[in-house]
Q: What sequence folds into this?
């Protein structure tokens, strides 16, 4: 593709970043539709968007068409597909939300492990344009019908507005579940003094937690306190993984060693994600998220201090733990703090902020790594951000009733 459009690595990277930012600006609007549109309709629309973007990639005659198609791929794929999966898990599985999120999150590491080989094999066999047509065909002929059938078989309420109304009486749209959940909220715990447990908003307005929309969330100090903990793992992972070869050279390690260390990242991410899922159901995400940055900070510290090759694996394991904890706990956190009525809009807003933040991290990392002692300064900056993010996130820990 780069050869056909005469794109250098730098130019293609710039176009890819621009397409990513374009999709990020569309996410708050597109992701909020998940709160208003029936789930089968939204899902099939997403499949059609993915297929149309893939056809655009495969048939693009000129560069502007390719860029527009790339925006569609980024929006439908990494944007709305993952957004839909995690939002639906958090919305429909109140009492087992953590486990549902951890299982759904396994798609990320599985895709990272399997898709590169499949894509390379497909391009080698039929070329990159025909490969994109294949993606469109699989989306329309396999994923579309399969998702429609599975949603029909689930027996759940598919209208998000009706689901939110039913959840005011019970869990997961089942009014009879109200007796099982006297806290009156989805996944609420009695006696926590939180918005969900008491059924009232923390700002004293008297509205239930599930009434929180984006504008109210943006006025909530807890959101801004926990936002660094939500954004820092993808911010630093993007920067440090992109420059893994430069980091290896600074430490005297080979590129092959750094690549093999990703095994530690993948394994710890999967294991921790599953463990945290069970932990969310038992203790609440609010008790887990404030401490989710600590493994990343420890990993950075070990990378900074290590002389031996074990440091690469320790660093990747720490990053995997942090990413795994956040991927499972963060969607559950938004549901606990602000309810499920506007969960799609809230999560889409956070996803957009995350994409924008990761667009800047490679610039910072590249600028520092080009200087003497840049790796040490970069890691020290990362550890300092972990400390600040952790201290701020402690603000969301639940308080007992009567605590000022």
A:
């Amino acid at each position: 593709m780069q050869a056909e459009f005469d794109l250098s690595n730098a130019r293609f990277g710039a176009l890819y970043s621009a397409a990513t930012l374009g999709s990020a600006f569309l996410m708050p609007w597109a992701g909020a539709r998940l709160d208003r549109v029936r789930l089968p309709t939204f899902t099939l629309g997403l499949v059609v968007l993915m297929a149309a973007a893939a056809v655009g990639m495969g048939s693009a005659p000129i560069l502007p068409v390719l860029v527009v198609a790339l925006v569609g791929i980024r929006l439908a794929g990494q944007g709305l597909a993952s957004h839909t999966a995690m939002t639906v898990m958090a919305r429909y599985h109140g009492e087992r939300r953590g486990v549902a999120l951890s299982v759904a999150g396994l798609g990320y590491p599985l895709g990272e492990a399997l898709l590169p080989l499949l894509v390379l094999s497909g391009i080698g066999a039929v070329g990159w344009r025909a490969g994109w047509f294949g993606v469109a065909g699989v989306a329309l002929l396999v994923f579309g019908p399969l998702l429609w059938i599975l949603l029909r078989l689930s027996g759940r309420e598919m209208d998000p507005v009706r689901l939110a109304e039913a959840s005011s009486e019970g869990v997961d749209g089942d009014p009879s579940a109200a007796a099982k959940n006297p806290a009156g909220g989805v996944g609420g715990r009695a006696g926590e003094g939180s918005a969900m447990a008491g059924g009232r908003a923390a700002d004293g307005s008297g509205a239930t937690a599930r009434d929180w929309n984006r504008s109210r969330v943006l006025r909530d100090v807890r959101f801004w306190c926990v936002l660094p903990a939500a954004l820092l793992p993808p911010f630093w992972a993007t920067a440090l993984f992109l420059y893994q070869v430069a980091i290896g050279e600074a430490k005297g390690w080979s590129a092959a060693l750094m690549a093999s260390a990703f095994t530690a990242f993948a394994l710890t991410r999967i294991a921790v994600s599953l463990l945290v899922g069970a932990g969310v159901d038992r203790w609440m995400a609010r008790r887990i998220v404030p401490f989710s940055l600590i493994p990343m900070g420890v990993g950075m510290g070990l990378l900074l201090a290590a002389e031996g090759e074990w440091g690469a694996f320790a660093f990747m394991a720490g990053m995997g733990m942090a990413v795994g904890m956040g991927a499972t706990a963060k969607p559950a956190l938004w549901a606990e703090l602000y309810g499920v009525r506007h969960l799609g809009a809230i999560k889409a807003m956070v996803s957009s902020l995350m994409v924008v933040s990761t667009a800047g991290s490679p610039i910072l990392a590249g600028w520092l790594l080009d200087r003497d002692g840049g790796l040490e300064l970069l890691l020290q900056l990362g550890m300092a951000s972990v400390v600040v993010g952790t201290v701020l996130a402690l603000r969301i820990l639940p308080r007992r009733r009567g605590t000022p």
